[in-house]
Design goal:
Layout: H1 2-25, E1 29-35, H2 43-50, H3 53-56, E2 59-65, H4 69-77, E3 83-86, H5 89-96, E4 103-110, E5 116-119, E6 135-137, H6 144-155, E7 165-167, H7 175-180, E8 186-189, H8 193-200, E9 204-208, H9 209-213, E10 219-224, H10 225-230, H11 232-251, H12 254-261, H13 270-282, H14 294-306, H15 316-319, H16 323-329
Parallel strand pairs: 1-2, 1-3, 6-7, 6-8
Antiparallel strand pairs: 3-10, 4-10, 5-8, 5-9
Helix pairs in contact: 2-11, 11-16, 12-13
C-alpha cells in the first residue's frame, strides 16, 4: 500500500515538474496577426513562420485572415489583433479621423502592387486601350488595389469612370467568384487566383499592375502606437524574424519558396504556387528589407490623391517608424 502511495506521489511530482518545464519553455511572446487576405504575395510572412525565423526570436504567431482592409483595421483598433498586415493607406484613414492612438507602419512586406489584369478572352497583342468600353470588375473603393488600378489606367490615358463600366459594389472576398460566374470583361486579381483562372480557362493574365505603378508600401505590418510603446522588444524581435525571411527569399529559388509556403495554399498545385512566386520575384514585389522609405510613402499618397481618396497629407515620420527596422538591419 505504502509502495503504491509512493509511486502515485512520484507521478504527481513528475507531472508538476513537467508542467513547470513546459511553462518555462513556452515563454515566447504571442503575437496575433490579422492579414488582409491569403496570398502568395505575402510569401515572406509564411516563410518567417514555417522556417522558424519568428520562433527563433521568441515569437509565437497566431495568424488570422480578415478579408478587407477596413476589417483588418477594425480588428486592430478593437484589440482583436496585435499587428495588422494591410495597405498603408488604412493608417492614413485612421489618422485623418482624429485617432488619439495612431496606427504606425513599422515593417514593410511588399513594395509593389500585387495584382494582375485578367482578361476573360485570350489576347495576343494586349494594349491598355483595349479596356475602353469594356466592363471592369474593380476592387473596393479607397483600397490600394483599386487606387493603383485607377492610377495605372489613367497613366495609359483611360478614365476609369467614363471610358469603361467600373463595377465596385462586390465584396473583396467575392470578386473572383463573381468573375468566374460571368461578371466583367476584365478583373484585377492577386496570385494564386490569377494563375488558377488561367489554368482553368476562366481568364488570361495580360498585364501586371505591379510593374506599372512603381514602388509603394502596398502591404506593411502595423500596430497601434500604444502596443508598440508597451511591447518594444516584441516588435523588434518580430521585425528581426521578418528580415531573416526577406533575406532568405532573395537567394532561394521559386521552387524552394513554393515548397515552404505550400501548407498555406493546400488547394493550389505546387506548380502554380511556384509560378506565382516567380512572377512576384521577377517584378521585385517582395521587399528586401522592412524599411518603408520616404519616396515610397510619398508615392503612396500621390496615388491616393490621384484617386481622390487622400483625406490629408501626412508626413512620413508621423505614421512610419523606421528606427526598429534600421536597428534590426544594423
Amino acid at each position: 500500500m505504502r509502495k503504491r502511495v509512493r509511486i502515485i506521489l512520484s507521478l504527481v511530482v513528475a507531472s508538476f515538474l513537467l508542467i513547470g518545464l513546459t511553462a518555462c519553455n513556452s515563454g515566447n511572446d504571442k503575437v496575433r496577426i490579422a492579414e488582409v487576405t491569403r496570398s502568395i504575395f505575402y510569401a515572406p510572412q509564411y516563410v518567417a513562420i514555417e522556417k522558424g525565423f519568428f520562433k527563433d526570436e521568441g515569437i509565437d504567431v497566431e495568424l488570422t485572415t480578415v478579408f478587407g482592409g477596413d476589417k483588418v483595421m477594425t480588428t486592430l483598433l478593437s484589440d482583436g489583433a496585435d499587428i495588422g498586415l494591410v495597405g498603408s493607406e488604412t493608417s492614413i484613414y485612421v489618422y485623418a479621423q482624429g485617432s488619439n492612438d495612431p496606427v504606425i507602419n513599422f515593417a514593410q512586406l511588399t513594395q509593389t502592387d500585387g495584382t494582375f489584369l485578367v482578361s476573360r478572352e485570350a489576347v495576343e497583342d494586349f494594349s491598355w486601350d483595349q479596356l475602353k468600353d469594356s466592363t471592369f470588375l474593380g476592387q473596393r473603393k479607397g483600397g490600394m488595389p483599386q487606387m493603383v488600378g485607377e492610377f495605372v489606367l489613367k497613366k495609359h490615358g483611360i478614365d476609369p469612370h467614363n471610358d469603361l463600366e467600373l463595377i465596385q459594389n462586390i465584396d473583396f472576398a467575392n470578386i473572383s467568384s463573381a468573375f468566374a460566374s460571368g461578371t466583367g470583361d476584365y478583373v484585377q486579381l492577386f496570385e494564386p487566383q490569377a494563375s488558377v483562372f488561367e489554368k482553368e480557362g476562366i481568364g488570361h493574365i495580360v498585364a501586371s499592375f505591379g510593374t506599372e505603378s512603381g514602388h509603394v508600401p502596398y502591404t506593411t505590418f502595423m500596430a497601434k502606437q500604444s502596443y508598440m510603446d508597451e511591447n518594444p522588444e516584441t516588435v523588434e524581435k518580430f521585425t528581426r524574424g521578418l528580415y531573416k525571411a526577406q533575406q532568405w527569399i532573395q537567394t532561394a529559388s521559386a521552387k524552394e519558396i513554393a515548397e515552404i509556403i505550400q501548407p498555406y495554399f493546400e488547394d493550389t498545385e505546387l506548380e502554380l504556387i511556384e509560378m506565382s512566386v516567380e512572377r512576384y520575384k521577377s517584378q521585385g514585389s517582395f521587399a528586401t528589407d522592412p524599411i518603408l522609405d520616404i519616396d515610397e510613402w510619398n508615392n503612396l499618397q500621390d496615388i491616393m490623391d490621384e484617386a481622390g481618396e487622400l483625406p490629408q497629407y501626412v508626413e512620413h515620420e508621423t505614421l512610419v517608424n523606421t528606427d526598429i527596422a534600421d536597428s534590426v538591419i544594423e
